[in-house]
Amino acid sequence: MLPDESVNDMYGRLNVIVNEIKGLGGSYTDLEIAQKMLRALPTKYETLVTLLINSDMSRMTPAALLGKINTNDMYKAKKQELEEASPSSKKTIALKTEVEDKGKSRVDEDKSDDLDDEIALLAKRFNELLGRRKGEGNNFNSYKRRDRRGSHKRSLGNLRCFD
């Protein structure tokens, strides 16, 4: 296989050579043609070649072998396209800088980290407050509420007890 040649072009050239040999009276079996195709593949197909050699090659036609190679190429191209498109695969780094201010050096922290810490602390305190307030709602007593407003003391004098 030539360096800048595709697998389909190599297969086309191989078919031309095989047809010329058949025209001269020689013959090759499908297995022999498939083996020659595998030997001609570059090293980037090494894993695929190993898998195909270990499979049952006796029933494989050169066209079927070409289909498997093309399927492998399409799978790798799609996988690479997805990896390039996903933002999580891109690596990002954060660098700290030193700034000298009137002879003093200080390290500038990333302000977004500070903001994230403050938001996390606020959320934690809010959840604690909600946890405390849950217990208050369970012990509801209307007399306590009136007592806070001052109207309950006035209404106690109007109550009569019937035993």
UniProtKB/TrEMBL annotation:
Protein name as it appears in the record: UBN2 domain-containing protein
Q: Where is this region: Disordered?
A: 80-112, 133-157
Bias (Basic and acidic residues) occurs at: 97-109
Instruction: Show the ranges annotated as biased composition (Basic residues).
Output: 143-155
Q: Which Pfam families match?
A: Retrotran_gag_2
Q: Name its species.
A: Oryza meyeriana var. granulata
